[in-house]
Amino acid sequence: MRCCFSAHLPALAALSAFPGPCEVLRSGARLAPALARSAAAAVRRARSPHPDDLSAVNLELVTLTEDSAVVSWYTGIPGTDDGLGHPLPAITEGEVVYGTHPGRLNRTASEGRPTAHHQVELTGLEPGQTYYYQARSRGVAATPTPLHLVRGNAVGTTAFGLGCGGGPYSFTTPQPPPGRHLLSIALCNDLHLGETTAGLVGGLPLLRGVGQQPGRAPYPELMSRALVEEARRRGADLLLAGGDISAGGSAHDLGEARRILDGFGTHGQDYFVVRGNHDRSHENDTFRSAFPVADGPGYFARDLGGLRIIGLDTYAKSGNGADAGGLGPEQLAWFTGRLREQPDQPTLVFGHHPLTVRDSIFPVTRGQQLDRRQARAIVAAYASAPGVFLHHAGHTHRNKRTLLLRAPHVTHQEVAAAKEYPGGFTLLRIHSGGYALNHYKAGATAARQWSERSRRVAAGLWPHHALGRSVTDRNSMRVHDMSGVGVLRTA
Asked: DSSP states of 316-327 as a string?
């Protein structure tokens, strides 16, 4: 006789994808005032523009390494509106003045040509040094992306200059990872080939999506190509793509993703891919056809000169994609067994769903992370495997660094989506005595334009979620013994 409770299991599974009442109230208390301010700002912008007016906004310290920093901002024409509550672009020059004292900004870095989507890189910095800087366009100082909802800081490692309407702002460069450089790996996820509208958050009617401008290339394609180009330019030896390669698992979209990623190198040698919940398909296994895996249905381990890379399929289950991720018992047993065999080997794990989701401004549902029991089993395995140093995940479309008490030697790094703001990847630089994680935006002009346009996702609140509330959410360095890893030789 069939249990009457089991008849309701499909409905209960669907309900589990929705946030609980406490989550809704918590997020609502944060988001309602911000939505009201956005509406009021749209009304204020409805005035006649003056041709000489200029606004310099959305200043962000995107990347911070031991010897460099990348800052970006946008210049627009006040009083104009592109239809999404954002000023029309004002094409002009951009420069950053900086120095080691706030009263002596005696060094200058500038761009090669006028633009509205500014990105300036400061080079030749000293490790452990505090710098002060101001970004300017036509004499107007750029103001930061506001992260008040998360009490964040988009422009520095300290609060210096915040609230001053243009800075200068301050950051301190980190120390480099100890030892010699061995290899660099580009970490990316959520390419969503085939998607046409960004930001359809759970189908909520108040959070309308953002589409590409007419006549421009589909944004998933141009952002993926820009990612590959930027990763190569930044010296990546390998690329790991952590799921949601396509928007719906179609053979066409996965084939296009394969063609784009082949621009980086050879699949299974220069780059590796795992499946996400969006990559599931009711057709034949289109994902495995596009990206075949030798070890198992969708998971694998590779030893690259002493570095072990483990790729996980975190949606190895039936479902609609909105519920919690799952490995399946066979994959979980295989994974924990691999760690037990060689617990001290330097190991990087990547999969689509994170093990835990913390500090989100949006309601957190079970569907945003891996099944809780499996996540606990993985963390327990990490606690007994000191060689594991990094777990890279996507799915949340944000930059977030998390350390867990039970296995504090493992950095859990969520990486923002490649397909939309901030739009890029995280570069992992492995040295013999440690590693650094640094987020880079895709630098191509069309990618910068789409990144700025897509920051209006979720009624303009997307930066509070996606950028990272602090510089260390997207840039960090840790000491770890990598002495067993050799220098990677690539063709």
From this structure: -S-S-SSS-BB-
